[in-house]
Amino acid sequence: MRTVIKIGTSTLTYLNGNLNLKRFESLCKVIADIKNAGNQVAVVSSGAIALGKSKLGLSARPADIPSKQAAAAVGQCELMCFYDREFSRYHHNVAQMLVTAEDLRGGERRVNFGNTAEKLLSMGALPVINENDTVATAEISAGDNDTLSALVAVAVKADLLILLSDIDGLYTADPHSDKTARLIPVVENITAELESAAGGSVSGVGTGGMATKLQAAKICTAAGCDMVIANGAEPENLYKIIAGESAGTRFTGKKI
């Protein structure tokens, strides 16, 4: 199985922007084990701006675009250093790929990205992909690595996209404010009612929200790729998701 795993900032870091080492190490160990079982995996990782903020000693997440880009430039080095260190423990090679949404929407750049990603996966490497925040401003403004990960999943012809965030999945209402909200285990069609229940980012460290995750689901499922939203605080749920068992919310891809 070929799987893309998107890891959100709120999964990787504490509220102060420092890396959550225990969770990061657990995630990398589980992903390495999934690769050991014969699966091909690519990771779309947020977190560069948060780590850059922490390393630069900034008291708050940057508000203006140039400062966010500067923090991302510093944080991306830190992020890849940690990924390389952790996956090297399990004898897996990582490869950094920095892209923008425009690189993945069509044309020669998408073909080039797909060819490189295909070669890396066939060689057993683990691509770690992030939005190129140092040169692009569209995604950095929207904080939309969810859509980026969906475009990556389609470009590499993945069977499954897993979005790891700070919520268990899609609910009938906002579970933070409505105690009657119920987790929806499977979504076969994204209706207007589901979209109206989508809200913004809750954690404050990430900038994506449920609305961007539903947009990602539309992109994936239209291409025949399943997508799962799950809580990144429980890395071992990845085993269940890969096995097709119930965990989080699964959006079923349209068979084409």
Report on the structure:
The structure is a single chain. This protein has 11 helices and 8 strands. It is globular, with a radius of gyration of 17 Å. It is 44% helix and 16% strand. Helix 3 (48-56) crosses helix 4 and helix 8 runs parallel beside helix 10 (210-222). The chain has 256 residues and is α/β, with parallel strands linked by helices. An 8-stranded mixed sheet has the order 3-4-2-1-5-7-8-6, with helices on both faces. Mean pLDDT is 88; it is low at 200-208.
Condensed summary:
By secondary structure, the chain is of the alpha/beta class. Helix content is 44%, strand content 16%.
Strand content: 15-25%
Q: How many strands, which pairing sense, and closed or not: the largest β-sheet?
A: 8 strands, mixed
Low-confidence stretches: 200-208
Radius of gyration: 17 Å
Number of helices: 11
Question: In percent, how helical is the residue content?
Answer: 40-55%
The number of distinct β-strands equals 8
> Helix- and strand-based class?
alpha/beta
Straight-line N-to-C gap: 17 Å
Form type: globular
